[in-house]
Design a protein that fits this description.
Length: 456
């Protein structure tokens, strides 16, 4: 009876996935093709051009998408052929009003900000030890060696790289000469000084170089990770050793293409990013594995860890959205090179909007009422797992700064093994706790001496 039920559920799930795929929007001329081990890229008169993305994965251009898809479906050399889907249009989060009185009294009185002279550092409740990530205490007891510089890619809506708190921490491609219209470093992109923009392409179909943000989201994420510390301005980022690589891949209506995400991840990894912050997602995966395969490959080849937000679909505490049951992507991909983040409040509890998942959501971090940089040299407050992810990314970058030989998998496991345990989280997320920067840096020292893994 159980076998029949399982069979029915699998068949029903496949039918639902097919229905979702049929109703989803996709690029009319793109097809991802992954060849089986040892097989060369398939040839067909229906293929206009093909470009190897990574490993055995190719992006094919065609004017007859459906016909090519049917042809490849019967080809035994093809592991899969997947359409290039959009993420779905939806409203981005809104900034919140800063309640200065309640924040000053309720959330920040326990934080020791001796290490920071930034005037608004007192608004960063995520730095405290009781309900935050223990950032302040970590800075009081850092290793004696100087942290190495770590490149962090922010795949988002772009970054305001002229912001007073961000201009000094932007990654700069030193092999490229700005504004000369030449691909000086021969990496396939022209004038990619701070990163790339996959939303605007030139006549040859190449991503362009304007990474300036038109929406505040990517700028807010960047400030949380690494806003310049001790410059007497604004806030302090979690990390002191980061250069932000700006990759504009998420439109202002959050309707990103799978091919743009894949290109963003690959560009970041190939150009030295050890961590990629991914504060976006979509409800339907349409059965495709191209983004997951890319995350796996950059983890293995470049030791790059992708840190992703779990999603904001819950109405807690009475109705939690469980990603184990209703997946969100890329958060629900099964990958050792992916770390998924839930959100917590200044009281230390799970944010009521945060998705959970005992199998698919790894750790929790502060994500409610997060104060950070926004466009135009300003600052603002926002809430979401989009804010919890960069808080974790900042901690990850600090760990790598002191222990750069950690692999992506080791870094992930350090973050998961070093959490502050929270009893209620044991039934909600894999690690059962909240990110703890002080403990994580201490654990990382052990991880460099021996192998250890967090088994789900």
């Amino acid at each position: 009876m159980k076998k029949l039920t399982a069979c029915f559920l699998m068949t029903f799930s496949a039918m639902m996935a097919s229905a979702e795929a049929a109703n989803s929007r996709f690029h009319p001329n793109h097809l991802f093709v992954k060849m089986k081990e040892g097989e060369a890229m398939v040839k067909s008169p229906l293929i206009k051009s093909s470009k190897r993305i990574i490993g055995r994965l190719y992006l094919v251009k065609t004017n007859k998408l459906e016909a090519l898809g049917q042809e490849l479906a019967s080809n035994e050399a093809v592991e899969y052929a997947q359409k290039d889907f959009f993420g779905e249009k939806r409203l981005m989060p809104k900034l919140e009003i800063l309640d200065r009185v309640s924040l000053a009294i309720k959330n920040f009185t326990e934080v020791n900000f001796v290490s920071f002279n930034d005037p608004d550092a007192s608004k960063l409740w995520a730095f405290n030890s009781t309900s935050g990530m223990n950032v302040s205490e970590a800075y009081d007891k850092l290793p004696s060696t100087e942290a190495e510089q770590i490149i962090v890619a922010v795949v988002d809506t772009g970054v305001d790289h002229t912001h007073e708190d961000l201009k000094d921490i932007m990654w700069t491609n030193e092999q490229e000469i700005a504004g000369n219209g030449i691909d000086d470093d021969n990496n396939g992109y022209i004038d990619d000084i701070h990163g790339i923009n996959t939303l605007v392409r030139d006549a040859q179909g190449r991503a362009t170089m304007n990474t300036m943000a038109s929406h505040w989201h990517g700028t807010h994420v960047s400030g949380t990770i690494a806003a310049t510390q001790n410059n007497g301005l604004g806030i302090a980022g979690v990390a002191s050793n980061v250069k932000i690589m700006a990759i504009r891949t998420v439109p202002d209506d959050s309707d990103e293409l799978d091919s743009d995400i894949v290109e963003a991840y690959l560009y970041a990894a190939k150009n030295g990013a050890r961590v990629i912050n991914c504060s976006f997602g979509k409800a339907n995966n349409e059965g495709g594995m191209v983004v997951r395969d890319t995350i796996n490959e950059i983890g293995k080849k470049y030791n790059t860890l992708v840190i992703a937000s779990a999603g904001n679909d819950s109405s807690g505490p009475f109705s939690w959205h469980n990603n184990d049951v209703s997946p969100k992507y890329p958060a629900s991909f099964d990958s050792e090179s992916l770390l998924v983040i839930a959100s917590t409040t200044s009281s230390g509890s799970l944010s009521t909007f945060s998705n959970i998942g005992l199998k698919t959501v790894d750790v929790a971090a502060p994500g409610s009422n997060i104060y950070s940089t926004i466009n135009g040299g300003k600052y603002g407050m926002a809430s979401g797992t989009s804010m919890a992810s960069p808080n974790t990314t900042g901690v990850a970058a600090m760990i790598l700064g002191f222990y750069p030989k950690l692999s992506a998998i080791q870094l992930k496991n350090v973050l998961m093994k070093s959490v502050t345990p929270v009893a209620a989280f044991k039934s909600q997320i894999v690690s059962g706790g909240r990110v703890n920067m002080k403990t994580a840096i201490e654990k990382a020292k052990t991880a460099t001496r021996k192998r250890f893994f967090f088994r789900k």
